[in-house]
Amino acid sequence: MPNLEFIENKGQWDSRALLKADIGNGSLFFQRGGIKVVLHNEQEMAAVSSSHGGLYRADSSKLTAAARSFSGRPSALRAHAYAVNFLNMNEAAEIIPDKPLDSYNNYFIGNDSSKWGRKCRIFQGVTYKNIYPGIDLRYYSNNGKLKYDLIIHPGGNPENIALQYEGLDGLTVTNNRLLLKTSVGDVREMEPYSYQAGDNGREDVQVRYRVSKDRVVRFEVSHYNNTRVLVIDPTLVFATFTGSRASN
Hints:
Layout: E1 6-8, E2 17-23, E3 26-31, E4 34-40, H1 42-51, E5 79-86, E6 94-98, E7 104-107, E8 117-123, E9 125-132, E10 135-142, E11 145-152, E12 163-166, E13 170-174, E14 177-182, E15 185-189, E16 193-198, E17 201-204, E18 206-211, E19 216-222, E20 230-233, E21 235-237
Antiparallel strand pairs: 1-2, 1-8, 2-3, 3-4, 4-5, 5-12, 6-9, 7-8, 9-10, 10-11, 11-20, 11-21, 12-19, 13-14, 14-15, 15-21, 16-17, 16-20, 18-19
């Protein structure tokens, strides 16, 4: 499965977004203080995609009458947005896209040329460098899964990490997995695989999610060597995920 493409914003999207990445049923917007996730109703999204070019193959009986036009395509596409805010982050943190591709995208949408984007570079990941003292945060995809690494360098304190989820219908933790409920489907954050280099190679470290009543997620780390780099590596699972631009 193709991996995500992180595309720079040159005015074609909201100015708060530095980069955008498309997934199968939505988009991720990477902002200075966090990320914004926009998800669409999966069935309605499939109907729009299937009917593109006049070919309609989706089961329109699954859509409400108000969501269908005479052509069989949805006249409305329901969506849900939520944010992940980096609480108490270092305001001077650098945001560094990495692994650029040779290609680029152009966006000539509408009549206002000031909102066009020319030669927008495409990257395979983005790092928030020193987001907390001694801690980096990197988003990327691997084998069709969206991942983020929290990289705690010697001297960094994982207790400083605080990710506040805003705009969800629900946020719970079960079996050390996060369940994010939205009006158009659920998102799961799998149990974080955490490790650091040891004398005999990579050593696993136990890390657990902690969720407060105000929907702030923190990480509880057990028995690690704070003189060596620690990596906390969760995986996000959306209802539909694809890095393919053709399907978007």
